[in-house]
């Protein structure tokens, strides 16, 4: 339900973009910086971009760093695992923090807390210290959760997939951009007169400074919700302070969140894994120089400029016609094709063919990430932050497990590991078939014959006592605005019946 901005309507007069009943923007204008919606979009993706640059600043310089610190292949593998493992719990914690204190404070605090680790990368002098700085820097990747939470709080159901896809995709660009940035910065510093073992250390000051500045931008320019920051809304009584045990309970007992976490583990988790291994893979297997290997590796991450956003846009597009069922079918198909391409990438043996397959694989892998977060906002209204954190954390768990099993030490060659990783993608995509929303249906079945409504589904997260106090009203607005997930059936959507008692089994 879109709210028209009439001149005498003071509740919506302050928003430059058209909004719905929750004051979420109903359009997405990427060229705009209008507060609070589009401003939140731009500062969120830029800050997430800076965290990606920091976390993956080391891989493109590994041929130099490993000689300086005498790193073995096991040391390098362990450091790569450390870089993505720290964010596993940090992402779940970030989701919780977003639910309780808002994305602005949660995100800016984490970015500032992890920036010192990036600065300390320049003084690493042993395999252990190198592993530790990568571990603590990797915590910053949890800002992805605040980014997705923020977009889901600022944009309505019809465009939330697009907003999430663009914010996440452009943030993930940092994984590709750093493959170009760090070798270039290293070369400039070395050409000025520094030795190569000094130049790589100085180079780390660039991502560290960038990350620090982005934290201040979030804090001073950001806004938690369309109507203001959490602190203001709590004081005014417009938003109640939620009961954390209840928020957690409704998140962990919703099986849809766990399936999406697994799915994300083998699209975004694979992307993280490739960011860690791909430059060294081309450097070692095809004997290309450091800069060429960095450029090839960068092309994988830089595909995020359109691939992940494309997944989000595609999710919204199919939902207009086929609703939630269309989102799920498209997610499964794109993820499966990505798995097949990953298998093929490990099989091809020439440089040109490997680059070509890698590029196509990157598009499907990253589009699946955008498609996943086209579904996430609808799993739960009350526990959106924790569900987002669980899903985001699943991406890091997938990266850790994949690197431990396939790319740590010399158990498998890198090309064999890539092929096996593709098989894991195919297997971990199958549970998407089990996701079912009683009001919308799933891949195999349509909506429940009981006639469950959106209001009943989202109201089931609130007790009768909480409903009597009116705590569920925001969920009711969201339910009304998410009726478009019925697809073409939205025109014949029945009006909600009794909003006091949710149907059993929702």
From TrEMBL:
Residue ranges annotated as transmembrane are: 43-64, 76-93, 105-124, 131-150, 170-190, 202-222, 328-349, 355-379, 386-406, 418-437
Q: Which Gene Ontology CC terms are recorded?
A: endomembrane system; membrane
Q: Where is the composition biased (Basic and acidic residues)?
A: 480-491
Which key words tag this protein in UniProt?
Membrane, Transmembrane, Transmembrane helix
GO molecular function annotation: nitrate transmembrane transporter activity
One annotated GO biological process: nitrate assimilation
User: Which Gene3D superfamilies does this one have?
Assistant: MFS general substrate transporter like domains
Span list, region Disordered:
470-506
* Compartments, record wording: Membrane
Q: Which InterPro entries match?
A: MFS (IPR011701), MFS_trans_sf (IPR036259), NO3_transporter (IPR044772)
Q: Does the keyword Ribonucleoprotein apply?
A: no
How does the record say this protein sits in the membrane?
Multi-pass membrane protein
Q: Which Pfam families match?
A: MFS_1 (PF07690)
Q: Which PANTHER family match?
A: HIGH-AFFINITY NITRATE TRANSPORTER 2.3
Identify its protein family. Belongs to the major facilitator superfamily. Nitrate/nitrite porter (TC 2.A.1.8) family. Belongs to the major facilitator superfamily. Phosphate:H(+) symporter (TC 2.A.1.9) family.
Protein name per Swiss-Prot or TrEMBL: High affinity nitrate transporter 2.5
Species this protein is from: Coffea arabica
């Amino acid at each position: 339900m879109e709210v028209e901005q009439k001149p005498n309507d003071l509740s919506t007069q302050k928003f430059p973009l058209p909004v719905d009943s929750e004051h979420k923007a109903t359009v997405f204008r990427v060229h705009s910086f209008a507060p609070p919606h589009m401003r939140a979009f731009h500062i969120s993706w830029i800050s997430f971009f800076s965290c990606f640059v920091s976390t993956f600043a080391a891989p493109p310089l590994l041929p130099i760093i490993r000689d300086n610190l005498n790193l073995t292949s096991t040391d390098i593998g362990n450091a790569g695992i450390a870089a993505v493992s720290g964010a596993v719990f940090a992402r779940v914690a970030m989701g919780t923090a977003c639910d309780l204190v808002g994305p602005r404070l949660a995100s800016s605090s984490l970015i500032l807390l992890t920036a010192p680790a990036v600065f300390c990368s320049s003084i690493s002098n042993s395999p252990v210290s190198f592993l530790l700085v990568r571990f603590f820097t990797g915590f910053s990747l949890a800002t992805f959760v605040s980014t997705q939470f923020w977009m889901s709080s600022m944009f309505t159901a019809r465009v939330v997939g697009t907003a999430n896809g663009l914010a996440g995709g452009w943030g993930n660009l940092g994984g590709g951009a750093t493959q170009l940035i760090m070798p270039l910065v290293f070369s400039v510093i070395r050409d000025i007169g520094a030795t190569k073992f000094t130049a790589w250390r100085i180079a780390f000051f660039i991502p560290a400074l960038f990350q620090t500045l982005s934290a201040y931008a979030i804090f001073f320019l950001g806004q938690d919700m369309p109507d203001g920051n959490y602190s203001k809304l709590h004081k005014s009584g417009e938003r109640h302070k939620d009961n954390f045990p209840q928020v957690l309970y409704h998140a962990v007992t919703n099986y849809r969140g766990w399936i999406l976490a697994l799915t994300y583990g083998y699209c975004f988790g694979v992307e993280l894994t490739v960011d860690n291994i791909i430059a060294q893979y081309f450097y070692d297997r095809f004997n290309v120089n450091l800069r060429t290997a960095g450029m090839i590796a960068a092309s994988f991450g830089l595909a995020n400029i359109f691939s992940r956003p494309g997944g989000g846009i595609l999710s919204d597009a199919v939902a207009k016609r086929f609703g939630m069922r269309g989102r799920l079918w498209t997610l499964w198909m794109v993820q499966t094709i990505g798995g097949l391409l990953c298998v093929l990438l490990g099989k091809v043996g020439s440089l040109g063919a490997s680059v070509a397959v890698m590029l196509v694989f990157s598009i499907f892998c990253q589009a699946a990430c955008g498609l996943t977060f086209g579904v996430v906002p609808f799993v739960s209204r009350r526990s959106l932050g924790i569900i987002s954190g669980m899903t985001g954390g699943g991406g890091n768990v997938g990266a850790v497990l994949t690197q431990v099993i396939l790319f740590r030490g010399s158990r498998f060659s890198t090309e064999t590991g890539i092929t096996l990783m593709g098989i894991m993608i195919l297997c971990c995509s199958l549970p998407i078939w089990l996701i079912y929303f009683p009001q919308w249906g799933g891949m195999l079945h349509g909506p429940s014959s009981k006639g469950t409504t959106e209001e009943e589904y989202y109201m089931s997260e609130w007790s009768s006592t909480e409903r009597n106090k009116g705590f569920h009203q925001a969920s009711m607005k969201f339910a009304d605005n998410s009726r478009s997930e019925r697809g073409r059936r939205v025109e014949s959507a029945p009006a909600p019946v009794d909003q006091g008692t949710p149907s059993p089994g929702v």
